[in-house]
Amino acid sequence: MAQATREYGEWPLKRLMTEVVGSGHKSADDMSRTQAREAFRRILGDEPDHTTLGAFWLANRWKRNTPEELAAYVDVMSEESVETATPDADPVDCGANYDGKGRSAILGVAAGVVAAAAGTPVVVHSGDRVPTQKQDAYKHVLDELGVRTEIEPSESADMVDEVGFGFYYQPAFNPGIDALFERRDNMGVRTFVNTVETLANPANASVHLGSFYHLAFAKKMVRTLARSETSSVERALFFQGMEGYDDVRPGETVVAEWPVTGEESDDEDIADFEIRTGEYGMDIESEDLQVDDIAEESAAITEAVLAGEREDGFADAVALNAALRIYAREDANSIQDGLEQAREAIADGSAAEILDDLRAF
Question: In the UniProt record, does the keyword Ubl conjugation occur (predicted)?
């Protein structure tokens, strides 16, 4: 313990449990940035006893992390685990939940390709069957499409610059988080790692697009980015995603945007507004986007939509999700303008060409 204290500081996880976070969800205290930083440094260094680590993760889940704590975790992850590779293009960083989807099609590959074809570079990143759900994610759709995914960060950056759409593979760019796989799997529930890994931003993008279940969580994510000392993100767009993924939920959907100045935003420059997806051509129910084999059917849908062979609800959903990416980067003045760009990129064959280029990369 003396050696650990000299290396890390005064706050081993057991002490944090006893004195700060471990007394229960109503009486626990929040950690300071210094305490949260030290905790995550110890975790990435595989220093804590496994029982203590599990208890710490669960205590954080009960008490709910503050933006200050999450920002500290993001900073330590960035400093000690993430290998960034910055493309010349400044893409939209899409941070979908790494543990994937289990009911509905993954539309982010198709939407990202369409956005790229319209002139908005896009980056996505994921692992491979990440706990706790260990379901299909970006990697698995791209694998089905014949796109190389197990590549080094420098290749991912080249993919962005050469194609307009890039994939970063977690074991390659974020090995410290990948090394926690077994510990996370044994937890049986999500931990704060599931949150911070989506903010890894391996391309050093200045725009982040993410999803949330509730608006309060979206605002917490914005505050996390604002408080992070390592984040390069200057603008963010969050929307209510299907299964927590970055595929917009049909119906009435809340969007959080940052930074926005003026009367429509709060004192932290966060604005929120509601869109009715039916008004943008996505006049379907969530059940209409459900599939049985997530990766295989998502890949088939992607191919058909990009080729202009589908004009159904899936095609409408892809176009609207692409529009949100275009709008997030401010390559369109409105979501409607982005939608028009997206539909044109499909109609003129540009999106299909991007998919061909991805396969050839």
Answer: no
Q: Do 237 and 109 fall within a single domain?
A: yes
Residue 243: closest CA among 289, 198, 188: 289
Number of domains composing the chain = 2
- List all residues 6 or more positions away from 176 whose beta carbon is below 8 Å from its beta carbon: 44, 77, 80, 81, 82
Domain, as residue range, for 28: 13-64
pLDDT digits 0-9 by tens, 4-59: 445 899 999 999 999 999 998 889 999 999 999 999 999 999 999 999 999 999 99
Residues 257, 248: Cα–Cα separation, whole Å:
15
Contact 165, 357 (CB under 8 A): no
CATH of the domain at 278: 3.40.1030.10
Neighbours of 237 (CB within 10 A): 24
Contacts of 131 (CB under 8 A, 6+ apart): 99, 181, 184, 185, 187
Are 36 and 100 contained in the same domain? Answer: no
* Rounded-to-integer distance, Cα 257 and Cα 209, Å: 10
Question: If we measure between CA atoms, which residue out of 232, 229, 209 comes closest to residue 221?
Answer: 209
Continuous segment of H or E residues that includes residue 122: strand 122-126
In angstroms, the first-to-last Cα distance of the chain is 49
Same domain, 252 and 117: yes
In this prediction the pTM is 0.96
128 lies in some domain: yes
Residues 129 and 29 in one domain: no
In a domain, 173, yes or no: yes
Q: Are 84 and 157 in contact (CB under 8 A)?
A: no
Q: Please name which of 187, 123, 182 lies closest in space to residue 156, comparing C-alpha atoms.
A: 123
In a domain, 155, yes or no: yes
Least Cα distance to 36 among 224, 268, 232, 233 occurs for 224
